[in-house]
Design a protein that fits this description.
alpha+beta, 28% helix, 355 residues, globular, Tumour Suppressor Smad4, 19 strands, 2 domains, 4-stranded parallel beta sheet, Rossmann fold
Length: 355
């Protein structure tokens, strides 16, 4: 859940952050969006020594340790949700090793999936302007962001099933069209739509049935939600079944969006310390296609769509299913656990969400 709080950054005369409130910017040098123009624009906002570019996993780990050792107050990540998740985990792990207070995080919308950026109002293609607004003191608010744990990683969202399958198909399509005259069709919203139409939907139609799944409450009491996000029925105790039956998708999140304005979790930020678990049992492909606009806006309701507030759940499938963590494909699993991370992180809030 996100809760608005005051920033603790301190500004010196002239609008420059003091050393205690220093700002670091972390980028993935291998990302296509991180080009020379982006690097030049950001280097005009922060000094070169505060702009870090990683080219490998080892280098990223070294950068995270250096950033924590320098005690930056705010660390911006440039990229999509996968980049944010990767840097947040590295920074938090380095902070735990050094027994240091984690920095506040910020997001620069440089990726395709920008669920966190949409939540805090970061502006696509205006990353340098957003950063400048923060450094100058124009943006001073921040929020606390709860995180989900999955496969040993902390993330705003994760899912098993059709959402991960569409992601895998999108990456497949983007790779196949890269370097061709049709490259643009394989990116962004168009790419997701084509991937779903050409691969995900036909595969769903050919499957005999969705995988059988059992979901057990592995934490404190959980609650079933109605179509308006209200709690209904008695609390679901530890060890009790939340759901058993066919499952097209089971996903958990503490933010409403999946990126590109897709509001998959409309009740994710309505209960502090709990995630929204959304289960799609059996919904026809034709129904999904005809209601795409309602799905995108978060207004879609269906008897096959079940929602819960919980803090830890264990899922078991009859056959391996595709998994995504923070928008990154993570292979296939027949068992997975979603839980709330022990501590939230603080994140810069730019204001009204762009979505």
């Amino acid at each position: 859940m996100l809760r608005l709080i005051d920033s603790t950054a301190r500004l010196e005369p002239g609008g420059q952050l003091s050393p205690v409130g220093g700002v670091a910017v972390l980028l993935n040098a291998r990302a296509k969006a991180v080009n020379d123009a982006v690097r030049r624009a950001l280097s005009l906002v922060v000094p070169p020594e505060d702009l870090f570019l990683s080219r490998s996993h080892d280098e990223a780990a070294e950068i995270a340790d250096r950033v924590v050792a320098r005690r930056y107050r705010t660390v911006f990540t440039g990229g999509g949700d996968g980049t944010f998740v990767s840097w947040v985990n590295r920074i938090l792990e380095a902070s735990e090793r050094r027994r240091a207070r984690p920095p506040r995080f910020g997001v620069l919308a440089l990726g395709t999936g920008n669920a966190v950026a949409e939540m805090v109002g970061a502006t696509p293609r205006r990353h340098a302007e957003d950063l400048a607004r923060f450094v100058s003191g124009e943006v001073q608010g921040s929020r606390r962001l709860d995180l989900v744990t999955c496969d040993g990683r902390r993330t705003p969202f994760a899912g098993v099933g059709v959402d991960a399958a569409v992601l895998n198909d999108y990456l497949w399509l983007k790779d196949r069209l890269a370097g061709t005259p049709l490259q643009g069709l394989g990116m962004g919203l168009t790419g997701y739509g084509l991937a779903a139409a050409l691969r995900s939907a036909p595969r769903a139609l050919l499957e005999r049935r969705p995988s059988y799944c059992e979901i057990v409450n592995a934490g404190r009491p959980a609650w079933r939600l109605d179509a308006a996000g209200r709690r209904v029925g008695p609390a679901i105790a530890h060890g009790e079944l939340l759901y058993a039956g066919p499952c097209m998708m089971a996903a958990a999140s503490t933010v409403p969006y999946y990126g590109l304005g897709l509001k998959v979790f409309p009740w994710a930020d309505k209960a502090g310390g709990m995630m929204q678990l959304r289960v799609a049992s059996t919904i026809g492909v034709a129904t999904l296609v005809l209601n795409l606009h309602r799905i995108w806006s978060g207004d879609f309701a269906h008897e096959g769509l079940l929602d819960f507030h919980a803090d830890r759940v264990a899922l078991r499938f009859e056959r391996p299913m595709p998994l995504q963590v923070g928008g990154d494909a993570e292979g296939w699993r027949d068992e997975v656990t979603f839980g709330m991370a022990a501590n939230p992180v603080e994140i810069v809030d730019f204001g009204t969400a762009a979505a």
